[in-house]
Amino acid sequence: MSPIPIFAVFLVLGAAAIVNVSSLPNYGGSSWAVSPKDCSRTEVFSRCDGNPSCQKTCDNYNEPIPCTRSSGLEGNMCYPGCVCKPGFVRVAQGDQCIPLDKCEGRVKH
Q1: Helix, strand, or coil here: 49?
Q2: InterPro entries from the xrefs (predicted)?
Q3: Could you tell me the CATH number of the domain that includes residue 76?
Q4: Strands (E), the chain
Q5: How do residues 13-34 score in pLDDT, each as one tens digit?
């Protein structure tokens, strides 16, 4: 088998991966940070839990979040990014982290 078709397959797969990563949404917060220096003082960097749709907010704090950490093809992948420090929660998806008690009665403890 000629190495050219194999190279072409890898080239297409590589281009698809680049397009996929570059199309990740930006929700206005620092959730899609790529290093700890990108996190605010109310956030910490996580190698796996940075997906904004998987983080607790004032509105979803009492609900289960349907995100799981896994690797491979069977489920959600790890997303590096900033997550709220303990005692803090996002105001809304992708928004800044605020103290949990500032959620204006939306959170039941």
Answers
A1: strand
A2: Ser_inhib-like_sf, SerProtInhib-TIL_Domain, TIL_dom
A3: 2.10.25.10
A4: 43-46, 81-84, 88-90, 97-99
A5: 544 444 344 444 443 344 455 7
